[in-house]
Amino acid sequence: MKLSILIARFSYVWATQSLAYSVHGHHQDAGSVHGPSSDGSDAGQVAPRSSLLRPRQDFDTRAAAKAAIDALNNKFYSSTQAIWSPGDPWWLSGVALASVIDYMRKTGSSDYLDQVHDIIQVQRTQYAESGGDFRGQSTDDTGWWALAMIRMYDLTGNDTYLNISVEDEAHMYKSWTSSPCGGGIYVDVEAKTYKNAIANELYIKLAASLHNRIANDTEYLSRAETAWWWFQESGMIRNDSLINDGLASNSDGICYNNKLPVWTYNQGVILGALVELYQATASDTYLTAAYTIADAVLSSQTSPQLSKDGILTEGSCEPDEANGCNHDQQVFKGVFAYNLDELHNATPDGSEDHPYRSYLQQNAQSAYAYARGKATDLYDVSWVGPFQNSTIGKQASAVGLLVAAI
Ligand SMILES: *[C@@H]1O[C@H](CO)[C@@H](O)[C@H](O)[C@H]1NC(C)=O
Ligand SMILES: *[C@@H]1O[C@H](CO)[C@@H](O)[C@H](O)[C@H]1NC(C)=O
Ligand SMILES: *[C@@H]1O[C@H](CO)[C@@H](O)[C@H](O)[C@H]1NC(C)=O
Ligand SMILES: *[C@@H]1O[C@H](CO)[C@@H](O)[C@H](O)[C@H]1NC(C)=O
Ligand SMILES: *[C@@H]1O[C@H](CO)[C@@H](O)[C@H](O)[C@H]1NC(C)=O
C-alpha cells in the first residue's frame, strides 16, 4: 500500500477520535490522568470506547515514568541477583534496563545509576563459557543487552560499555550465513534452525549504532546496510508493510515468510534500526521505509489489529481473554513505543504527517488512567485496562511507553 494512502487512512482515524473526544470528553475524570488517585483502590476500570483521551498538555509524563520504574523495582527487583524477576526470561531485564537508562538520559536524573551499574557488573558474568559480556545462546538476547550498553555509553561516555557492544556485534555476526535465505542471522547460536525478524532487526540496529559511535568506521555500516537490504527482500515483510515473525526454508535453501504472528516489537526495533541508518547516511530512503512500517501499525485494522481506537494493541494475543499474552509477549508494545519515539526524534520539525508524539502521549495517558493499579503504580498488559495484575513484561512495557512519551 502506498504511504500516502496509509497516511490518509490514519488521519481519518485521528480526526474521528478528536471528534469523539470533543463529544464525550466530559465523561473523562480529569483528575485521574494527571495525579495519583487518593482512594488507593486498584479496582480495574476499562477505557470507555470511542472516548479515548486526546493528549493533555498538563499530564506529568516524567512523574508517571518515575513512579512506574520505582514500582518495577519495588515489585520485581532482586538486589541479591541484580536482575528483575529472576525466574522470568533474561532478555526482559535487558529491555527494562534500556528504558531505565533512557529515563536518566532524557531527564538528566542519576537516580538509577548505581543500580544499573550493579546489573551490568553481575549480568555480564553470565555465559562465562562464551566469555560473558552478554554473548549467550540466542542472538536476540545478546542484541537486547548490547543495545542497552549502547545507551549506557551514550549516557556516560564510558568506553567500557561501547566495547562490550563491540564484542556483542561480533558474537551476533558469527550467526550470519549466506545460505539458506541468501543471508541473515540465526537466532539460535548452536542449533542454527531459525532466521527470524527480531534477531536481524536488533543486529541492524546494533551495527548501525556502532558505526555512528566509532570514528572512521566503514565495516559496521557496510554490515548494517547489507543486512537491511537482505531483510527488505527476505519475504518477512508482508504486502501491507507489516513484518511477520520469521522465515522458513525449502530443502534447496530458498526461504519464505513462515506466516507466524505479526508482533508489535517486530514493527518497532526496525524503526530504531532505520533511524540509525538514516543518521549514518543522511539518506531519506531509510526514514521513508520506517514511516511506511510505523504508519502501517498505527492504521492497522485487521489480522492482527495492532492499533485500536488509537491505542497500541498486541493483536495476536491481547484480545484473547482465555490465553492472553505470555511473559515474553507482554513486553512487546513497550519496545514498539520507544522505537517509535526514536523515529519521532529523527523526524524533521513540522512534519505533521507523522503524529507519533501525540500517539505516544495518548497511549501513555490511557495506560496511566486505565492499565495502572492506582495504589501500586503497577501496570497490566492492555493499555485500555482493566488492571488486574502485573509482571516484569507488563511493567517494563509500560515503562518503555512512559519514558518514550517524556
Ligand atoms: C566505566 O565503567 C566500568 C564498568 O562499569 C567501570 O568499572 C569503570 O570504572 C568506568 N570508568 C570510568 C572512567 O568511570
Ligand atoms: C575499548 O576499546 C578500545 C579499542 O579497542 C581501546 O582502545 C580502549 O582501551 C577500550 N576501553 C576500555 C575501557 O576497555
Ligand atoms: C579518522 O580519520 C581522520 C582523517 O583521516 C584522522 O585524522 C583521524 O585520526 C581518524 N580517527 C581515528 C579515531 O582513527
Ligand atoms: C497481499 O497478501 C494477501 C495475503 O497473502 C493477498 O490475499 C493479497 O492479494 C495481497 N495483495 C496484494 C496487493 O498483493
Ligand atoms: C492475572 O490476571 C489474569 C487475568 O487478566 C489471570 O488470568 C491471571 O491468573 C492473573 N495472574 C495472577 C498471578 O494472579
TrEMBL record:
Entry-linked InterPro entries: 6-hairpin_glycosidase_sf, Glyco_hydro_76, MUG_Protein
Signal sequence coordinates: 1-15
Keywords: Hydrolase, Signal
One Pfam family per UniProt: Glyco_hydro_76
Molecular function in Gene Ontology: hydrolase activity
Domain of life where this protein originates: Eukaryota
Region (Disordered): 30-51
Record-level GO BP terms: carbohydrate metabolic process
Keyword Hydrolase part of the UniProt annotation: yes
Gene3D superfamilies, A to Z: 1.50.10.20
UniProt name for this protein: Glycoside hydrolase
